[in-house]
DNA sequence: AGTTTCGGCGCC
DNA sequence: AAAGGGCGCCGAAACT
């Protein structure tokens, strides 16, 4: 690629830029310009901007109305490369990478700030250590070489490119915000919770439910205090270990019904109630701080506002602008389809090659038509279910789809034995806690490795509790993480096809994306999603029969999508 | 008084 | 039917 330029903001608000040669080093003199946004705006021919941190640069560009098509985020790539090299946790800053390159003392990473409601703090990162452009380019050039040393260089290049695209998209989503009607939200809260009382106490409906619970127990009980509730049940002659809903649901006592209702509404009140609205919604937009690649598996997180946990009833407040629509697109059975693609199990690839309900197809083959059982078995295999009907169902799944189950079993065994596992594109799981030479030298006891030996059955009972927990983690990691790999490519492709339109990506939640667009663009957006899905499948997994269908809905209100 | 952990539950 | 993976958030409890 020829049209790569490096970019490094200077302390005085100016910027250093330089074209890069094939080796990743500056191919011309470093230019210094006074205005970051102007420097980028004036060079639309640049195919990819190489910079230290998207979070540092891109919000400033967007604020000035400048978008870029592609970037390469050096610090983000450093994180992924370190992980792949088994050096998870080493400082990831460009300054640290430079120090490793030059053999100097490696500075620790600056501490992460936490989000405050409505803050604009991501516009600038004052704590970040700047590196001059020539040094940044040196780190970049070295990273290009490190890509070549990975197990699958072309996949690793795709991963860092996709993750950088994710950084751009997350920043653009933060800039756009999710359309949010405070009026509808207040209406929903009033319907569910009743009037608020002065003084900030519980709203009417919660107070009533608390009274009902107390009346049922015959004494004052605070339903939000688990210890109080457990004691009250004990006094009524009922032993419960916790107040989790699934545990008390089956208890025969008049307090149970109002208690469960209280918990449900209490949750909405504290997490998505009036104070949430006050804190997070401004001028018709909810602005969560999306953070691409915020989890070890590559899933995104949001920083503040709980944007990835919006309760279904609250989604009524997500309303398109007048004349606009929300295109809500949900990938159908994403994780088992990803498992089919990565394991190349012939039977699972065959059912995943159809767009029809995958769980139904699996159940027709292995569970005599019981879809619910098939879904449980698949999820149990991916999550590492350890007991109950799950194990029996897993056996049926293993008979029909041996390579698929072996794939996750192998990942689980690797985790139990303290080895690393990777996603399809090469994102690598962190090492076991206490693992590594340091721990051994220090005499920290290690978990016993699981019983090794042939066969891909996973035999419970042979490894320690910690090792088994790590096995469940790595088992899930390869699927959840590879799904995140694919989802990133999907987002990048979708963003590309929306580039000429007014349509904006405004929300992303693991396997679901929302595009906000003028009504007349909504058909084109639906088509774009289908095309992006097919492209993402090909790019991520190569030639594969597996398809990734979406359920799409064009709605004015998010709650109407399902 | 301030900070960390826990319990419970929301989403996938 | 049973309680497995990844997160964030809040208040209370448990600490320093």
Any overview of this molecule?
The chain has 562 residues and is α+β, with helices and mostly antiparallel strands. It has three domains: 4-149, Nucleotidyltransferase, domain 5 (2-Layer Sandwich), CATH 3.30.420; 185-276, no CATH class; 325-561, no CATH class. The protein contains 21 helices and 14 strands. The protein has helices at 36-41, 54-63, 74-84, 94-102, 133-148, 153-176, 182-193, 204-217, 226-235, 245-248, 256-272, 274-280, 334-343, 346-352, 358-366, 371-383, 389-400, 402-416, 437-441, 465-498, 522-541, and strands spanning 4-9, 15-19, 31-33, 48-51, 71-73, 178-179, 281-282, 285-286, 289-291, 301-303, 324-331, 504-508, 512-518, 550-555. It has a five-stranded mixed β-sheet. Strands 12-13-11-14 form a four-stranded antiparallel β-sheet. Strand 7 (281-282) and strand 8 form a beta hairpin. The chain is globular. The protein binds a DNA duplex (12 and 16 nucleotides) through residues 224-227, 242-247, 263-264, 266-268, 270-272, 276, 294-297, 299-312, 334-335, 372-373, 376, 379-380, 382-390, 469, 472-473, 475-477, 479-481, 509-512.
